[in-house]
Amino acid sequence: MTDAIRIDDISKRYAGHVAVDRLSLAVPAGTIYGILGPNGAGKSTTLRMIMNIIGRDSGSISMLGADPAADRKVLRRVGYLPEERGLYKKMKVLDVIVFFAALKGVPEAQGRTQGREWLERMGLSEWENARVETLSKGMQQKVQFITTILHRPDLLILDEPASGLDPVNQEVLRDTILGARSEGRTVLFSTHNMDQAEQLCEHVCIIAEGRKVLDGNLREVKRSHMGNRYEVEFERESPAIQEQLRPGNGTFTTVTALRDGTAFELELSRGADTHTVLGVLSRIDVPILRFARVQPSLHEIFVQRVTGAVTPHRRPEEAHV
Ligand code: ADP
Predict the structure, then answer these.
(1) d(CA 255, ligand 1 centre) in Å
(2) Does pLDDT of 65 surpass 90?
(3) Distance 186 CA to ligand 1 centre (A)
């Protein structure tokens, strides 16, 4: 699989403060890739360096096979949604869409037709002749998203795309990102929202304090952080459950009741494995509905890895998730 973006060892320093510190990552073509981290981690700075909005101090970047600092043409094949949103407020909605499409080489008539299609898809048809400033923030954000995607870029780079969107519009955004991917486009987006990343991304890179904490295929990242926890659910309650699921009997270190008395999370003792647990469960006279190893959520992995990685010299408000 080729990489849509390859970053090697890039750094950015602001007045003695390192915003991005020797970061390397690769975004496989045709995938959805999430760059994750707490506020101030360096996500926007990284995306801005990829877009060549700010220069890097060192390292190399290859985007769709070109270095955007040397070859500006490659940016035409990219749709970028900046973190600081802003459209020309006095312009009419459809005109602003046509204007941005023209900047990316889309002829006016085509921009107008496709702009209308997008406005319809986003539920904004009635607003095409309204001035941008009369739209709500969420609506303006959807219009800005249309300006990012209308020219059918091979690569979408979205900086915190969901921030400021209500749940319904977040759903629209999600569908659009998945739609772009199913058309073979690559999507790189930043977020501090782990649940959102978990729903969308095939690959992730977690950064904190400008440094990479981990990266890789999401499924593999989850597998490599799998602990020794299992969840079991029985068809009904039974005294045998309490008898067998006792912590400190050599099999379990903790037994946590979930919901009513029929579902439990089991943390295994050192040396115990699936077979040991199944041996214990076979002594219980109630049918088992479910038995599965607990997968850590991305949020759990994030907290576990980032808390370990964040050093106390940062101001607390910069480290919050
Ligand atoms: P994120 O997008 O992950 O929230 P940013 O990339 O915006 O993080 O910021 C990373 C760090 O760089 C922060 O500590 C931020 O204060 C600092 N920073 C970002 N832009 C500038 C700038 N133009 N001047 C000085 N410091 C900056």
Answers:
(1) 43
(2) yes
(3) 25
Return the ligand 1 atom nearest residue 42 CA.
Answer: 6
Cα 43 to Cα 3, 221, 231, distances in angstroms: 19, 20, 35
Distance CA 11, CA 274 (A): 45
Question: What value does the mean pLDDT take over residues 127-132?
Answer: 95
Q: Which atom of ligand 1 is nearest to the CA of 45?
A: 6
Residue 243 confidence (pLDDT) above 50: yes
Note whether 278 and 199 are within 8 A (CB).
no
User: Could you give the CA distance from residue 254 to residue 251 in angstroms, rounded to a whole number?
Assistant: 9
- Complete DSSP assignment for 266-302: EEEPTT--HHHHHHHHTTSSS-EEEEEEPPPPHHHHH
| Nearest atom, ligand 1, residue 37 CA | 3
Closest C-alpha among 33, 56, 321, 18 to residue 185 = 33
pLDDT averaged over every residue in the chain: 89
- In order of 11, 12, 191, 216, the CA distances from 63 in angstroms are 17, 18, 20, 19
DSSP code per residue over 188-216 = EEEES-HHHHHHH-SEEEEEETTEEEEEE
**Pocket of ligand 1 from Cβ distances under 6 Å:** 14, 19, 37, 39-45, 318
Q: For ligand 1, what atom is nearest to the CA of residue 318?
A: 14
E strands present in the chain: 3-14, 17-28, 32-36, 58-63, 78-81, 155-159, 186-191, 203-208, 211-217, 229-234, 252-258, 263-268, 288-293
SS3 of the chain: helix, strand, coil, percent, to 5: 35, 30, 35
CA of 195 to the centre of ligand 1 (A): 23
Q: What's the gap in Å between 188 CA and the centre of ligand 1? A: 19
Tokens linked to 143:
């219009």
State mean pLDDT over 73-80: 92
Q: Residue of the nearest CA to atom 16 in ligand 1?
A: 40
285-298: pLDDT as tens digits = 999 999 998 888 88
- Whole-number pLDDT of residue 165: 84
